[in-house]
Structures are given as structure tokens and as C-alpha cells.
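In response to reviewer comment 3 from the previous cycle, which asked for concrete evidence that the modeling workflow produces usable outputs, we include below a single protein chain processed end to end. The sequence was submitted unchanged, and the resulting C-alpha cells are shown without manual editing.
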Amino acid sequence: MTFVIMSPCVGVKDGRCVDVCPVDCIHEGETMYYIDPEECIACALCETVCPVDAIRHIDEVPEEEKSYIKINEEFFSHS
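The workflow returned the following C-alpha cells.
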């Protein structure tokens, strides 16, 4: 996985990230969007357009948001 969507997305779901993703790796869940770790090509376009700063490279996820790495992975393991 290269990019992770974190808690600022919960309840917001703006969708700009989906519009710019060239590989359609961002999927909508009930309360937020999720990045498919197998499909993401690390282009970073989603990160640049997110209005709530909810998307970070996995190496830049703050400690208090690290649980969202697993949350993103688990969303796709149940799909």
C-alpha cells in the first residue's frame, strides 16, 4: 500500500480523490473512502486534491492515525 485515507474523511466523503484517481483504486464505504492497497500506483493525485487533508503516504501517517492503515486494508479483504 502506498497511500492511506485517515479519519478526517469520516463523514465528509468529498469525492475529489475518486475523480482524479487514474486507476480507480479509491472506493466508497458507508462513512468514508478507502484506497485499495493492491491497486494504488502511488501517483499522489488524491493527496493533492483532498480538501480535508485525509490522505497521506503510508510512511507519513501520523502515529494517532496508524489504525487507518489496517482499516483501509480490511475494507478490501471483506469485499
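The first helix runs from residue 16 to 20. We consider this sufficient to address the reviewer's concern, and the full set will be provided in the supplementary archive.
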